[in-house]
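Table S2 (continued). Query chain:
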Amino acid sequence: MAPIGSLWCVPHLRRTKYILSAAVIAGLEVDLKPFEFGVTNKSPEFVDKFPFAKIPTFEGEDGFVLLEGASIARYVASLAPESGLLGNSIKEAALVDQWIHFAEHEIAGYTDLVWQLVRRFFPVKAYSENIHKAVFERQERSLKFLEQNLNLREFLVTDEITLADIVLAGVIQRAARVTLGVAERALYPNVFAHYARVAGDPRIKDIFGAADFVEVPIAPKKDE
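Corresponding output:
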């Protein structure tokens, strides 16, 4: 089978996992291009093709260009409607989109904020315990809502893996490496049962790789 297009990415990033997992389940091939962060994305050839210089970035065989992991993954899934990755009806497709946006904005967004805050990613280097606590509480609210929704079902939308489940699994894996230690994970058994179900699927298990969860949430060093 000929590749549907080329992908510039870093394989271990969650957004890349969305795309590669969708491609595998859809039975499609994507050509992974060599990529070195800070080098490839700063080359004139790359910037000319992709002015935002962000990864993951996709170019179809027809020259169609797309960025943002969830958008690329959705496009890939749309090429194989029989896969069920986008559901089997208009309403199910809307629910898939709903959960993708929820996972990205109501969980992943807060994970990234905590990581950036603790790792002094922002120009103002001073750490704020109050901001950290407020961000974590917002993520906690989202996780409680998700836990309730997964109480009586194995997957988010249908009886099989959809793109929403893949995105959520990627988001939860990242959160459990940053904000959710052993004690926090114990509060969400349904969420982590869902993660294990999706990330452990034989078709995409190797894409997700080892869990590498933290024992306790990341925190600033005591002398910082």
